[in-house]
Each structure stands twice: as C-alpha cells, then as structure tokens.
C-alpha cells in the first residue's frame, strides 16, 4: 500500500488517470482498519483470596461521605476536591480536549463566510485609448463555502472520533485522579493520627523512664543501686527523648503533605476521631474481576486512549486516498454600490478539486507507521493497566486479612509485655533483679505499642485503598 502511491510518479501522463483509479480502488480496501475490538485482558476470572476476604458491600455504590465517617476527614476531603492543584490541572485538560474535539468535529461541516469589498481603480489616459483617464469601481457582497471535504473514506470522521476518544480519556483520567485524591487524603490523615498516638506513647514512655531514673538515683544515693543502673536509666530516658523528636518531625512532615493535598492550609475543622475510634471497613466485596476492573476510571481512560490510537490509524490510512474538496460562492457585484442589489448583479462560482498524494518523500507512509506504532503502544499500555489493577486489588484483599490477624496477635503481645513490665518493676523495687531487666521490658513494651498503632493505621489505609481500587469515591458528592 505504501509503494503504490509513490510509483505513480513514474507513470506516463496518459496513464495517470487509469493508475489513479486503480490505486484508489486498491487503497480503499487496504485502508479499512475494521471496527474497534477490545483486546483480551488475560486476567484470571477470580481473585485468589484467603479465607475471610469475602464481603457484601459494593464499593462503587458507597459515596465517600458514607465510607469515611470522621467529620474532620470529611472536611479535609471536601477541601481537597475543591482546591487541589493537580485536580485543577486535570479539569483544565478536560476542557482543552473538549475544545479540541469541537474543533475536529467542525471539520465535518462546511465553513461559510460573508464578505464584502469595494474596489476602485484609475487607469491612465495613455492606456485607455481615449486620451483621458478612466476610473472604475466594483462593489461585491458574497457568501463563500470554503474547502468542504467530501469525506468518502472517513478520514475526517476518524479524526473527529480520535478527538472524542481523547476527550473521554481525559475525563476518565480526571475521575481516576479524583478517587485517588480521596484515598490519599484519607491515608495521610490516618498517618497523622498514627503519629499522634505514637507521640503520646513516646511521651508516656519518657515520663515512666523519668520516674525510674529518679528512683534509681535515690537508690544510688542510699547505696542500694549501682552507678551502672543509673547510667542505663539515664541513657534510656535520652533515647526515648530522641525517638520523640523524630516522631514529631515525621508528624510535621505528614501535616505539610496533607496541607499540600488539600490545596490550602485547613481552616477551622470539626473535631475528629482518634485512631482507635476509626471504623475499619471489612465488608467491601471484591466482585468479579472483569466487571470491577473494566469500570475503573483509569482502565476506561486507557481504553479510550486505545480507541484514539485506533481511529488515528484509520485516518492515516485514509490519507493515501483521493481527497475531494468543494469551494463554492454566491454573491452580488456591480460597478456602483447603489446598483449592488439591482437585477442582473448576481454571480456564483463552483470549484471541485480532486487531490491525491503521488510522491511526498514517504511523509504519508511515515505518518501511517507512526499511527500504527502508537496503537501498538496503546494496546500494551491498556493491557498493563488491566494487569496492574488486578494485582492492586489482589494485594489489598490479601493485606486486609493479614492485617486483621496481625492486629489480634499484636494486641495480645502488648498485653503480655505490659504485664511483664509491671512484674519487672515490682521485682526491681524488691531488689530481686537489676534495672537492666526493667529497661528491657520497657523497650519491648514501647516497641510493641508502636507496632500496634502502625498495624491499626495500616488497616485503615488498606481499607481506603481497597475502596479506591474497587471503584469507590467516583459517585457525585452528597
């Protein structure tokens, strides 16, 4: 197909018309790309879930205000949806692609323009034959239809379809960004709550170690405790103070990130719930992969980009075929403005043009190759998006069950280590053990308490991410 048009450059003039007809008929069949067909996704028919991962609630049917019940979190999400800069950029891109679609669609309609002109010329006497200058005037008023293409091969229609697919892709990308923004705000909010709890635990640990340090110091002064015990207590206190400073820095960083997501510094916010008071939703149903994933905005955006590439291939192939352009005009002309609308002043013009690429140095063929390559890339991107979406849901379903088990285990561990510390402090006060065992018990309890808070936050974040992965947050605000 690519060589036929170039060979016309070597035909004899008398054979050009016959060759053009032959090429037209040949390329008309070659240019057909067929209707768009969704590629096979090659994803399993069901997620491999562990026991306990079943649910009854459809995430896509739950408004985000019903899923996230914390009033403070609701206010933050509402602020992010109104002021987040990335979301504003996405909205601007949607408006841009909508305008581009309107421009492409306009090419399918004729362009009409109204024009009026007045021309006045003076001819010197030497050229008039009557030895005196002559002045001529001409007034015109016309309506012109300029270069309207008869779209026999669908080239203009395919370009319009590609622009529409681009618009739909940008709109779906905006929706995907919106639900990702909701989940990310929730995740950062839970991180802030986690760090608040860990800071409170660290502060409690510091107070406890201060009391023990003072107790050991009195014991040293009375000769009942060794200098090494006091140094251990003093070092443990400073270590806890260092941990507190690190946590406070992390808390500030998380708060700054949350402010960036929201788009402005939060104003007066309603009181929120503590981390332990947050509801961990375990009732989200995974559903059937094909039904869930094909409804996700990011997957829809990838498919629309694939449709755009498919339409561009069809348009590029149609560029090998002849183009028929029509230019027509209808108007009035007279030597004086007063007689412009008098009988007999009407005029019209009609100019059909047939053009076909014969030799362009491979430009048309190259454009077709580019369109084909972009379509192949779009197919791969679409399949990759589907596979990543499947993996995301599968990982989150597995994490949901695992974190529930971890939480039960860590809460039991915290209870055991707390009791161990109480026993160790009693035995130390009675002189049965050294302060080193008390210190070990304190460190273990502190570590387990920190882990317990982290697991609780991970449960909440996993629920929020699973809500997003299953299509939640895409419903209109209520």
Distance between the termini: 56 Å
Q: Which blocks of ≥5 consecutive residues have pLDDT under 50?
A: 1-25
Beta-strand content: 5-15%
**By helix and strand content, what is the structural category?**
alpha+beta
Whole-number radius of gyration? Answer: 38 Å
What's the mean pLDDT score? 80
The CATH H-level superfamily of the domain at 39-105 and 152-315 and 378-469 is Outer membrane efflux proteins (OEP)
Order of helical and strand elements:
HHHHHEEHHHHEEHH
Within the largest sheet, what's the order of strands?
1-2-3-4
> Can you summarize the main beta sheet?
4 strands, antiparallel
Report a brief summary of the structure.
The chain has a domain at 39-105 and 152-315 and 378-469: Outer membrane efflux proteins (OEP) (Up-down Bundle). Helices cover 61% and strands 11% of the residues.
Keywords:
Outer membrane efflux proteins (OEP), 478 residues, 4-stranded antiparallel beta sheet, alpha+beta
């Amino acid at each position: 197909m690519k060589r036929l048009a170039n060979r016309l450059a070597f035909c004899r003039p008398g054979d050009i018309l016959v060759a053009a007809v032959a090429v037209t008929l040949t390329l008309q069949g070659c240019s057909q790309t067929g209707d768009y067909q969704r590629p096979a996704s090659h994803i399993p028919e069901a997620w491999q879930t562990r026991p306990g991962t079943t649910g009854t609630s459809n995430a896509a049917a739950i408004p985000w205000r019903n899923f996230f019940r914390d009033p403070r979190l609701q206010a933050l999400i509402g602020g992010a949806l109104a002021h987040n800069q990335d979301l504003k950029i996405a909205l601007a891109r949607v408006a841009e692609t909508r305008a581009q679609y309107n421009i492409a669609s306009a090419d399918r309609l004729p362009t009409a323009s109204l024009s009026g002109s007045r021309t006045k010329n003076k001819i010197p006497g030497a050229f008039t034959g009557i030895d005196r200058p002559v002045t001529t005037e001409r007034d015109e008023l016309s309506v012109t239809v300029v270069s309207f293409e008869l779209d026999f091969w669908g080239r203009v229609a395919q370009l319009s379809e590609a622009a529409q697919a681009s618009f739909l892709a940008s709109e779906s990308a905006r929706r995907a960004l919106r639900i990702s923004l909701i989940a990310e705000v929730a995740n950062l909010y839970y991180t802030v709550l986690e760090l608040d709890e860990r800071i409170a635990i660290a502060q409690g640990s510091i107070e406890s170690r201060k009391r023990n340090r003072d107790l050991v110091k009195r014991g040293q002064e009375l000769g009942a405790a060794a200098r090494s015990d006091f140094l251990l207590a003093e070092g443990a206190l400073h270590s806890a103070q260092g941990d507190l400073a690190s946590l406070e820095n992390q808390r500030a960083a998380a708060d700054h990130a949350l402010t960036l997501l929201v788009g402005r510094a939060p104003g007066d916010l309603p009181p929120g719930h503590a981390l332990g008071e947050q509801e961990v939703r375990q009732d989200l149903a995974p559903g059937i992969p094909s039904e869930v994933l094909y409804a996700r905005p990011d997957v829809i955006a990838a498919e629309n980009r694939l449709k755009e590439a498919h339409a561009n291939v069809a348009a590029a192939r149609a560029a090998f075929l002849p183009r028929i352009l029509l230019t027509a005009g209808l108007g009035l002309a007279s030597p004086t403005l007063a007689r412009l609308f008098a009988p007999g002043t009407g005029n019209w013009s009609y100019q059909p043009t047939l053009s076909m690429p014969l030799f362009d140095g491979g430009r048309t063929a190259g454009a077709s190759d580019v369109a084909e390559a972009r379509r192949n890339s779009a197919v791969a991107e679409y399949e990759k998006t589907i596979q990543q979406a499947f993996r995301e849901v599968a990982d989150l379903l597995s994490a949901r069950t695992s974190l529930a088990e971890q939480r039960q285990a860590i809460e039991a561990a915290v209870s055991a280590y707390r009791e161990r510390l109480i026993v160790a402090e009693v035995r130390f006060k009675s002189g049965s053990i050294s302060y080193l065992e008390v210190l070990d018990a304190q460190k273990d309890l502190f570590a387990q308490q920190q882990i317990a808070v982290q697991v609780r936050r991970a449960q909440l974040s996993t629920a929020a991410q699973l809500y997003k992965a299953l299509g939640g947050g895409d419903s209109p605000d209520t």
